[in-house]
What does this fold into?
Amino acid sequence: MGRTSKLIPLEGFAKMKRLFTVSEKSGLPPGTMVYTGPRKDEPTRITIIDYNAEQVAEIADAKVEDCMPCKQTDTVSWINIDGLNDTATIEQIGTHFGLHPLVLEDILHTTQRPKIEDQTDYLFLVVRMLYHMPGEKEIQSEQVSFILTEHCLITFQERAGDVFETIRSRIRKNHGRIRKMGADYLLYALMDAIVDNYFLIMETTGEHLEAIEQDMMVNPSALLLNELYRQKRELLYIRKSVWPLREAVGGLERGESALLRKKTSAYLRDLYDHTIQVIDTVETFRDMLSGVQDLYLSSMGHKTNQVMQVLTVIATIFIPLTFVAGIYGMNFEFMPELHWKYGYPATWLVMLLITFGMLYYFRRKNWF
It folds into this structure.
């Protein structure tokens, strides 16, 4: 079942699920096929969608042999591989399509920075796909690799499900121009779906930041400060994913590869503009985070000042009261007030007059 783009609140610390075992490649020669991602138990599954303007054919659980004819057909073939544990299967596909061993290594080494490589016969593109899983409160991330040939697009994902269901639906129902365009437009459409999901994540993040800001103004607390730091880490992670994506999309737009048709260039420029918008939004939210953090510090400082103000007023009031109590607490024998009938209530009256007189004076001065 594919992932949906349903928005859920961001709560708790975002771990990002990036537990890599890069040490497995230590000492191995370049081009060694070793999957370094965290999803070791994800089965490898191949799906194929082959289409043109008139018809579409799908193979849900395809074999490696089913991928072989896709290289020579005139139709557009989308080969999607979920799960990268079966390195033998990936190597067979790579060998058939003439992929360089270092490209296959980068596909399996899932810590790659978003990038594009023009290998003349094909384009190799790496991006990071961010999304929210239903029922989970963290941003999930995985590497998606694209291989674009003349009539074929191969996608490699770390796990089953993605943000591409709308694209599959458009192909099946022949909505829009996707069935009339080539594999390069399919690449654009998938990339656009990934970037659009960035906007959904940013929308959720923005709503969450606004809620934190409102709570911070009413009742600043250490819990809200921890939430701010978590949001800051998430925005930093998003920024690390989007900034190199801008370079990759820009390279795709400015590239002179024969695999990219001129009529697709306009869509790639639009995609580039979207990546810039995401980056601008990230930077805006980072500034907003700094502002909310400053608001927290100012609120805490103001709250501390208020507490100190109250304590200072109380201490100031008790100074003369302590003086009066100290005078009449001395054990001298010849103190006329000690033997006066109304000495005790008179002392209380004087102390109350001092207290209310000082409170009135402080109030007139707007000291509290």
